[in-house]
């Protein structure tokens, strides 16, 4: 089968950073589905895993943690899906990724593909939908059905993939969303998704948000790096909560967070499959709920750009786009170039 993989960790402009390879088709066992992959999305985690380092893989390593496709075979313990089902998922960072024609993935972290979306539109959603959903509702404890309506949330880095779905989920829950974006294109994007206020993260966030009439906000979601940590701590209300998704080597002073009795939560959507937690099936349920919301017209895909076909050249382009830090929404690579 066709796949795109690496054996060396090289800068993305190197022609061997990602390579076209032929691999054996996997065989599903246990709770695994074998999915024929039709489209994949590229996320910051792909670029981080691929980042240059002094290491050689003895066998081609396949990246990719977002996919949409069709089940073609199932393991003996599978009960949620059958061959022919259209599915979407983010997968498990400890296993081979989705940049291959056929992928094994545990059924408990797979959802049914939204029927109103094609595979490219669906592939844009799983990783960011899981991250945003878990960040807002599991980590921050916001009620998704509106019990916390009227509360405020500042989303830093709101125009990216996670922010693009988080804005929609927060608005569905009745929250007042203040989104950061620094360019006209990304500002228009976050407002089109439902944010009521937009501020520029290149400027002074505290001054801008207090200028909108907010002395404090109830929640802060940091969807990029931690360079705005001190502003987040200043803006969070006493006993409020902050969630972050990116690891960091930047200083994170905690004294002011402590005196506010405010909380910090980390969100890592791979935690459930990585640690085989007893509740890992929650990601299956979560993705099905998102599919229901999409099909009902209450949420929309965050797809911003599609490349075709799935090959090393286009995936190198996608990684470069991610590394530029200037994208909005999601970039998807679709098809293998041999479709009838």
TrEMBL record:
GO molecular function ontology, one term from the record: oxidoreductase activity
Record keywords: Metal-binding, NADP, Oxidoreductase, Zinc
Pfam families tied to this protein: ADH_N, ADH_zinc_N_2
Entry-linked InterPro entries: ADH-like_N, ADH_Zn_typ-1, ER, GroES-like_sf, NAD(P)-bd_dom_sf, Zinc-ADH_QOR/CCCR
Source species, domain of life: Bacteria
Stretch forming the signal peptide: none
Coiled-coil region: none
SMART domains reported in the protein's UniProt record: PKS_ER
Enoyl reductase (ER) domain sequence ranges: 16-333
Family under the similarity heading: Belongs to the zinc-containing alcohol dehydrogenase family. Quinone oxidoreductase subfamily.
Family matches, as NCBIfam families: adh_fam_1
Protein's recorded name: Zinc-type alcohol dehydrogenase-like protein
């Amino acid at each position: 089968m066709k796949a795109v993989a690496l054996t060396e960790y090289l800068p993305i402009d190197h022609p061997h950073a990602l390579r076209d390879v032929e691999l054996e088709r996997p065989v599903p066992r246990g709770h695994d589905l074998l999915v024929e992959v039709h489209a994949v999305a590229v996320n910051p985690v792909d670029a981080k895993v691929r980042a240059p380092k002094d290491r050689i893989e003895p066998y081609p390593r396949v990246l990719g943690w977002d996919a949409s496709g069709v089940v073609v075979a199932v393991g003996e313990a599978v009960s949620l899906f059958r061959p022919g089902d259209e599915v979407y998922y983010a997968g498990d960072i400890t296993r081979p990724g989705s940049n291959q024609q056929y992928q094994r993935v545990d059924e408990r972290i797979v959802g049914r593909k939204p029927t109103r979306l094609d595979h490219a539109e669906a592939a844009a959603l799983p990783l960011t939908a899981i991250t945003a959903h878990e960040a807002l509702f599991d980590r921050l404890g916001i009620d998704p059905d509106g019990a916390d309506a009227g509360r405020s949330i500042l989303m830093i880095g709101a125009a990216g993939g996670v922010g693009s779905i988080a804005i929609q989920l927060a608005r569905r829950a009745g929250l007042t969303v203040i989104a950061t974006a620094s360019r006209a294109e990304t500002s228009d994007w976050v407002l089109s998704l439902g944010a009521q206020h937009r501020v520029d993260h290149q400027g002074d966030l505290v001054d801008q948000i207090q200028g909108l009439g907010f002395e404090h906000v109830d929640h802060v979601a940091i969807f990029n790096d931690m360079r705005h940590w001190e502003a987040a701590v200043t803006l969070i209300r006493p006993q409020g909560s902050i969630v972050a998704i990116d690891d960091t080597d930047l200083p994170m002073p905690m004294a002011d967070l402590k005196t506010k009795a405010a909380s910090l939560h980390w969100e890592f959507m791979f935690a459930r499959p990585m640690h085989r937690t007893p509740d890992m099936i929650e990601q299956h349920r979560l993705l099905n709920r998102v599919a229901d919301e999409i099909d009902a017209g209450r949420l929309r895909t965050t797809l911003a750009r599609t490349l075709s076909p799935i090959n090393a050249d286009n995936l190198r382009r996608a990684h470069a786009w991610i590394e530029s830090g200037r994208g909005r929404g999601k970039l998807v690579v679709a098809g293998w170039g041999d479709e009838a």
